[in-house]
User: What shape does this take?
Amino acid sequence: MVKVKIDERAEQRILAAAKKIFLSKGLDGARMQDIADEAGINKALLHYYFRSKDKLFETIFMEVAKHFLPRVSEIFESGKPLFDKIELFCETYIQQMKETPYLPLFILGEATRRPETFVKKVFGNRKPPVHLFVAQVQQEIKSGNIKPVHPLQLLIDILSMCVFPFMARPMLEHVAGINKKQFDAFIEERKKLVPEMIIASLKNN
Amino acid sequence: MVKVKIDERAEQRILAAAKKIFLSKGLDGARMQDIADEAGINKALLHYYFRSKDKLFETIFMEVAKHFLPRVSEIFESGKPLFDKIELFCETYIQQMKETPYLPLFILGEATRRPETFVKKVFGNRKPPVHLFVAQVQQEIKSGNIKPVHPLQLLIDILSMCVFPFMARPMLEHVAGINKKQFDAFIEERKKLVPEMIIASLKNN
DNA sequence: GTCTATATTCCGATAGAC
DNA sequence: GTCTATCGGAATATAGAC
Assistant: This one.
């Protein structure tokens, strides 16, 4: 009884430590020793629980990858009006990136270096239903409710503005001369500004 | 005479090889053997010319980092009208990223993992004159020529939409189901669409 | 300058005591 | 399950012949 509890706690501590180290250093830059130190246990125990570095990495990758497309399906499949979906999308994304700021660089870095394995790991067999978003945009255009735009370009515009600032954070802090607190305020402001700008660009005069 | 020529060519081949390998694999993922193979020479020669892996990396990083802020100073310092600057900025950035698509992930990845050393390496002591852009935007707002916006948010909006698609390429190709040719067309289209959208969002009714 | 061979360091993985 | 000690391979770096 007590033993099981301790084991579980060790395993959980390893997972938390591995997540932190892999996210910040990447697969190649991470050391098993770093993870062991972070978890407060011995290197050998990592292998006891997860057999190899690759296995441990895969476990972490699968676990965090799903947060990179947070609730996208849910949002796209909801019956909400387009502008509501855009607002919710931005809010959801920016909030998720605030909680896991290393995530985009980690996922896209590994996806670029290992494109073949990436696809299956992140998406399994289910892709997010982009076509639903595309169809809705086309419908609104046909109805004359918004200006004619390329739906996919629009989606990438939104995604770019929500995610990129977190990836460019060190550059941004230096070039613009802002500190961490100001960065947080800057990001918080974007939750409103990004959807406002997108929606403004879609509206007819 | 001949010797010098051969030496120079070896050194140049090493630099080209190192650039390719470091950009695609990062510092941690790159192997000296990979670089030697790519350059068609022996591992020992890398150390003869550049002493260590770190030194070689630093050489490459300094050389490519400047392309990450392509002609930004030049554009900001030009006397052009704001909308012209925005168009030129987008055109310049997207063109640069087309030529070196690995660059943003490489620079921002290394910048995140090694923030302390990054700043000096990329910028030296000279930051791009963001304040000029900010001042010009504020001036246009005061004159009533554009809607009131936060200049820095605007700048990040533009930068995000120009750079992010290249970083998200593998995801984009899979989720949207497009191939390399279609991606190129998609990107080419953005050279027009991004400044159009930005400018549209700035115009008063 | 360029190579082969080797030294050195580092790191993932395992063996075995407790 | 957890530890210490160690193995074995891989990667950086150097020595030395040509």
Observations:
- The CA atoms of residues 66 and 112 of chain B lie 17 Å apart.
- Residues 31-33, 43-44, 46-47, 51-53 of chain B lie near DNA strand D (CB under 10 Å from a C1').
- The two ends of chain B are 69 Å apart (CA to CA).
- Chain B touches chain A through 51 residues (CB under 8 Å).
